[in-house]
Design brief:
Blueprint (H helix, E strand, L loop, with lengths): L4 H24 L6 E5 L2 E5 L11 E3 L6 H13 L5 E4 L6 H9 L3 E11 L12 E5 L3 H15 L3 H11 L5 E8 L2 E11 L2 E9 L8 H15 L4 E6 L4 H9 L2 E10 L2
Parallel strand pairs: 9-10
Antiparallel strand pairs: 1-2, 2-3, 4-11, 5-10, 5-11, 6-7, 7-8, 8-9
């Protein structure tokens, strides 16, 4: 597997689709100020009502020759009361893009690890205590909603509206892990074109360490392969438990996105 510009473009385009869908969900549950601004392949996500949720407030998909657009996007963020945050992806940006970000006072604050895998390399199912179900019934939908709200600390009424909208998303598939008959973990797969995007997973604290995420990861990978995907991808914090799960499963590190922030 060679991580070239073409593959990088494929992965980031799939990521941007998921990010735009998240903003759409925020709008659906009543956040009318949430928005997506587009400049070519670059996207600015804004959710001023929740400025600390970094994944909903960022400039992403920066390409070469976008210095002017970067200045405009960061001005839009500041005008909305959101601290500037931008992601730089290797092979896509140029020195001019970096200079534009530095001129705006942004500096590197961290990194996101982007993972990739060929679905033909999926191994055998892990041996765990978890039983995995796709969200297709009222019972599995209720379990997914309960875990999602608890895991992401979303107010009850908002979470109910959000999850009801989520399960109607085209190309998204939802899964719940049960331990001893109790809902324990949830996870989401987004299929965009030939890319299966592994996203939105959490385990309730008392069920951690019992293989829920390994089983959910395997189920989503199989579903993506069955849907005709040629790539699997996901994003994690470098060195995190999620990153270790990706490595154990067989994912390769595609690249590190540099995260730049400012005032």
């Amino acid at each position: 597997m060679i991580i070239d510009k073409e593959l990088t473009e494929t992965l980031i385009d799939a990521e941007l689709v998921v990010m735009e869908a998240r903003i759409g969900l925020a709008q659906h549950v009543g956040y009318t100020d949430a928005a997506v601004h587009r400049w070519g392949g670059m996207r600015l996500l804004l959710h001023p009502a929740q400025p600390k949720r970094a994944f909903l407030n960022r400039l992403h998909g920066i390409r070469a020759g976008m210095g002017h657009e970067i200045h405009e996007a960061l001005a839009t963020m500041r005008a909305a009361g959101v601290k500037p945050r931008a992601h730089l992806t290797p092979l896509l940006y140029d020195q001019g893009s970096l200079d534009a970000l530095r001129a705006e006072g942004l500096s590197v604050a961290g990194f996101d690890a982007v993972w990739v895998m060929d679905p033909d390399e999926i191994g055998p199912a892990p041996v765990t205590d978890a039983e995995i179900y796709e969200v297709e019934t009222p019972a599995t939908r209720e379990a997914f909603t309960r875990i999602y709200g608890a895991g992401y600390k979303i107010p009850l009424a908002e979470n109910a509206r959000l999850c009801a909208a989520m399960v109607e998303q085209t190309g998204w598939r939802f899964y719940v892990a049960f331990i001893d008959g109790e809902p324990a973990a949830q996870a989401v797969l987004d299929v965009h074109g030939k890319v299966g995007h592994i996203v939105e997973s959490c385990t309730l604290p008392r069920f951690r360490g019992r293989g829920c995420q390994s089983a959910l990861l395997h189920q989503r990978a199989l579903a993506a392969r069955e849907a005709g995907c040629t790539w699997l991808t996901s994003q994690t914090e470098p060195g995190s438990t999620s990153a270790r799960n990706m490595q154990r499963f067989g994912f390769r590190l595609a690249y590190l996105d540099a995260i730049l922030t400012g005032e």
